[in-house]
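ok so I'm stuck.
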Amino acid sequence: MNETNLMQLVRLRASQLGVTLYRNNTGKMQTKDGRWVTFGLCVGGSDLIGWYKGRFTAIEVKMPGKKPTPEQAHFIDMVNKAGGIGAVITDPAQLEKIFVDTV
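replied:
not stuck anymore, here's the structure
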C-alpha cells in the first residue's frame, strides 16, 4: 500500500462517519512559459481538509513510521488551538477515536 491508497481508505472511512473531507494538494509547479504557480491552502496545510459537525477539520495522512514536517505539525497544532479538529493518522481506524469521541 502507498500513501495515495491509504488516503483513499481514510476518505472512505471518514465519509462513513459523517466527516466531509477534501484533498488539499499543496506545492508549486512551473508552467511552460516559466512562471511558478503555488497551489494548496498553505505551506504545511493538511492532506485532507473539511468539516465535522460544523468544526474545521484537518487530517494529515502518513504511512506508518513517517512523521509530519514541522510545518505540517504546526498547522495541525493551530487548527486544534483554534477549536478545530486536527490530527496526523497512519490508519483509517484512528478516525473512530478522533470523531466518535468528538462533540
